[in-house]
Amino acid sequence: MKKYQDPFEKLFNPFKDRWFNIFSQHFKQIVITTILIFLSIIIFLGWLSAKKVKEVVVDDFNKQQLVLAEYAASMIENNLSHIKRELILLSLSPTIQYSEKTFLFTRLNIAFSSIKDVGGNEIRYIQSERLRTHIINGDRYNISDASEKDIKLLKWAEDKGNKDIILVNNVARSESNHQDGLLISFALPVWQVSVDDIHPISTNKFSGILIITVDAAALIERVTKGIKSVKESYVWVIDKKGTFLYHPASEFIGKNAFSVREEKTKNISFVRINEIQKEKMLKGETGTSWYISGWHKDMEGEMKKLIAFAPIKLHEKQMDMIWSVAVVAPINAVQGAIDSIQIRQFILEGFIILIILICGMFLVALMLRWSQSLKYEVEKKTRELKQSEYQYKSLIENANDIIFTVDKHGTILSINKAGASFFNADTDCMVGQNIAEFCFSEESGHLQLTTIEKVFNTGINKKITYSVNISNREFWLNTSFTLLNDEDGKPMMILGISRDITAEKKKEREEQMYHAEKLASMGTLAAGVAHEINNPLAIILGFVDLLIEKYPKDSQEYDILKTVEKQATNAKRVVENLLSFSRYTEYHEEEVDIKENIESVLAIIKNTMKIKNIYLESRLSEGLPKVKADAGELQQVFLNILNNAIHAMPEGGTLTITTLLCNGKDIQIRFSDTGHGIKREHRTKIFDPLFTTKKVGEGTGLGLSVSYGIITKYGGNITFETTTREESEKTGTTFIISLPSIADNKTP
Amino acid sequence: MPERILSVDDEPDMLKLMSMIIREKTPYEITTTNNPLEALELIRKGGFDIVIADLKMPGVDGIQLLKAIREFDEDIPVIIVTAYGTVESAIETMQKGAFDFITKPFRKEQILFTIEKAFKFLRIQRENKMLKERLGEK
Questions:
Q1: Distance, in angstroms, between A553 CA and closest chain B CA?
Q2: How far lies B90's CA from each of A584, B9, B15, in Å?
Q3: Which one of A32, A316, A678, B19 has the fewest CB atoms closer than 10 angstroms to its CB?
Q4: What CATH number is given for A502-582 in this structure?
């Protein structure tokens, strides 16, 4: 049965899907690879973002340094302005202009104390009139004769064109007794332009020159003291010549910025910082950059440093008096901070990834475990299914019955071994053929196909009996057809289970034949007996007939002869019945109306039924086709059956008579009583002649055998259904007579 | 001289009954025999007007007897009496030339009526024959 597996395979082997297999086999690798790819992407993106953050932070840091540099520059400029303002104020003081002895020192001292905090080192006033120089330097106040240099300055100051001009000059270290740092001087000519109580009118005479000397390093240090972007950064300042005005490393102060670094560290190239100094700082530009250095504070070794620079303008007109302030810090200091944040970030990211990984692995493990248990379950179920399929298959294959499936049109889809061997064919040969081809007659085939179609359409199981042709021999099958639905509940195919009932059929036929033969031989016997009896009866009746005339009617002899005649006539009737059973009597075929005949019989026995307390239920159909028979004979049959029914209900009951048309051609007459039923042991004998259960004299035992003879003579059939007390609560017998109607062309 | 009837039956009692009915109810003479072969001899000797024969008899049955009679006498009415009251046997006997067919058991009126009918037929037949002969003489 090859095809039988198809629905099972379709139902139970979906897991053999190729893609599913590949996926489940490489599931682990796929998951791990995916996780690794994602991790790589995350790490790469993290690195990229860290780099960007670093850039942004470094940039921001440098910008912050620039702000600091600019701030420092402006603060230095402010301080210088303060000094210049003091210088101007001092030059406008009448005490200075008119060199008032008493107040000159006081005024100079006030001014010095004002500039001392911003790096003021010395105030010098050179009197032109006396060529004397007043110097206030800390707590010391000196008056001396003007030096040559002072006189030179006086000469420059005397020039009216230099009136109100502040001359800024670098002062050589050697010229000063100041310990450290470069000095810078601001000189302003003093003219007698102010008035006071003593000098109500200004003389406008040249008075001298005022010079304030400032310690550049002190000036810058005061400003830069508090400026530190990060603790690692520091500030340095160079002048227009590239000389360090200020540097945290004091040994650098006063040294050339272009060479001092190389002197300190020889194996490092300072090209970049020299370039920055030369091209940008000394040109008075503002900006940020980086360079390579060999140290930073106490640290040594090659390092990258960030630099932000801004110019300091000492004098608006004197362009050569430009300094540049730089704020520097090693990039490591910034990156260190960033790195620590990034390390923390990386640790956090790593931790999260680790958690994700652990969760993922846990999930994968869980899924694998689940899929394994699922696989196990599937395998188990598949095994069970296979086993059950095998059991079913072997059950079907080893069944003695023919088991097959067909489609709606009767095409064989599958058939078991028993079926193939029954038809003397090969399973493969039978599959695809129409089932009707195996039928003995066209009628059988038609019956089968219509049944299959009906079962397919209605879903109601059906059982039919039909004959099939095997090697031109007729075999009988009793087949039950069942609809099989698919998973969606739609009709799929028809399952047929056939049983070979040829033997039973043969036996049944033989029994029928035997019964018929038995009845026929009994009929012959009865006929012979009838003839033998008819002769003596004729003699008896003849003599009685002759003799009876010889006695008067009131005589005893007449009575005796009448009794003899009556009994002999009874005997004659028995013989006539026997003869009619054996079909030896004459009959007149005519078209007979069943209803009419039943009614005429009922008219006769109506009274008897009333007396016997029997209720009659008449269900006689109107307009049924007529049958071809002898009306008298049919009435005799009805009377016989009705008499039996009445006899079966001694205590009353219901008698139901039904007539109906079967298959459109046979008239069926059903006589149902609610009597005691026919005992099992009597059932096979009831149609036998002379068989009776009635008391002697009540029945001849010929009623049913005669009825049988009459009905079969007209091509009909007489059967019965009966139930006795032993079998059911509801007892009774139904006699069923079917007769071919004239609508049917079958000849009796 | 009264007309004569020959009754043939294998059952003597039936012959007895038949002769009683004929003698009592008719003016005819009756001769009976239970031997069909003797019956044939008797008929051949002549003098019988009607034959009443049973259908079933041992030796020679009614049909055979009828056939034998017809061989030398075409006219004599033969009434067949039988206990085998079938249509087929009735048709057969009539075809073979029987005058009538009576089934046993019968009423005496039935047999008397048939005998009368047979004599009437016989008379008409004889008359017919005589008239034909006269016509031939002329």
A1: 19
A2: 12, 18, 21
A3: A316
A4: 1.10.287
For the segment A369-388, the average pLDDT, to the nearest whole number, is: 90
Mean pLDDT of A81-91: 89
Q: Residue A393: which of A381, A382, A403 has the closest Cα? A: A403
pLDDT band at A584 (very low <50, low <70, confident <90, very high): very low
For residue A534, list chain B residues with Cβ-Cβ distance below 8 A.
83, 85, 103-105
Indicate yes or no: CB of B84 within 8 angstroms of CB of A584. Answer: yes
Token pair, residue A198, equals: 């003593």
Question: Does the pLDDT at position A363 exceed 60?
Answer: yes
Structural domain of B76: 4-137
Q: What is the pLDDT of residue A591?
A: 87
- Chain-centre distance of CA B106, in angstroms? 16
Domain A401-500, CATH among 3.30.457.10, 3.60.10.10, 3.30.450.20, 3.30.70.370: 3.30.450.20
Residue A618: name the closest of A643, A639, A595, A641 by CA.
A595
Residue A126: what are its φ and ψ, rounded to 5°?
-105, 115
How far apart (Å, rounded) are the C-alpha atoms in residues A603 and A594? Answer: 14
Is B108 in Cβ contact with A584 (below 8 Å)?
Answer: no
What is the pTM for the complete model shown? 0.42
Q: Nearest CA to A290 among A256, A334, A255, A242?
A: A334
Would you call A8 helix, strand, or coil by DSSP?
helix
**pLDDT tens digit string along A225-284?**
777 655 678 888 888 888 888 888 888 888 888 888 888 888 888 889 999 998 988 888
